[in-house]
Specification:
alpha+beta; 4-stranded antiparallel sheet; 3-stranded antiparallel sheet
C-alpha cells in the first residue's frame, strides 16, 4: 500500500540515496535540492517520502500555498519503476491535497522535453494548460 510519510531524522539519508534517471536529464530536481527548497519555503511546501509498505520507493514535494496546489517534484526510484507505483503515489498526492488543503485543482509543472511524464500525467486525467514557465508546461486536473 502506498503511503506518504514525513521526512525526518530516521529517513532523510535514505531519501538522498533515491535515484531516478529523470534527474540525469534535468527533468526533476534532486531530492537534496528539493528538501533544501522545502526548508526555505517551509510555509508553502510539503516534502514526503513515498513508501510501498516498509520500502521507500520515491519522493514528492508539493506546493500548498495560495490555493494553487501543485505536485512540484515527483520521482519513483529506478529500482521500483514499471510496477504501477507512480500511478498509486500520484493518486495519494492528489488525495492528500484534497483532504488536507481542500484542493479543487491540482497542477503539475512538467519539463517540456519530458514526453514520458506528460503522457503519465495525461493518463491520470491531467490536461495541458496555456501556462509555460522556464521550460515547464503546467498540466492541470480538476478534482
Amino acid at each position: 500500500m502506498i503511503e506518504l510519510r514525513e521526512i525526518d531524522e530516521s529517513n532523510y539519508e535514505q531519501c538522498f540515496r533515491l535515484k531516478a534517471s529523470v534527474e540525469k536529464e534535468d527533468f526533476v530536481d534532486s531530492v537534496m535540492y528539493s528538501l533544501a527548497e522545502a526548508w526555505v519555503f517551509y510555509t508553502d511546501t510539503r516534502p514526503f517520502a513515498i513508501y510501498d509498505g516498509d520500502s521507500m520507493v520515491g519522493f514528492v514535494s508539493m506546493y500548498v500555498g495560495e490555493e494553487n496546489h501543485q505536485i512540484i517534484n515527483f520521482l519513483i526510484d529506478d529500482a521500483f519503476q514499471k510496477r504501477g507505483l507512480g500511478t498509486k503515489a500520484a493518486d495519494a498526492c492528489i488525495r492528500f491535497l484534497q483532504k488536507e488543503y481542500g484542493a479543487k485543482r491540482v497542477s503539475v509543472p512538467v519539463e517540456q522535453r519530458n514526453i514520458a511524464a506528460q503522457k503519465f500525467w495525461e493518463k491520470l486525467g491531467f490536461t495541458f494548460s496555456d501556462c509555460v514557465e522556464d521550460g515547464y508546461v503546467f498540466m492541470r486536473l480538476t478534482v
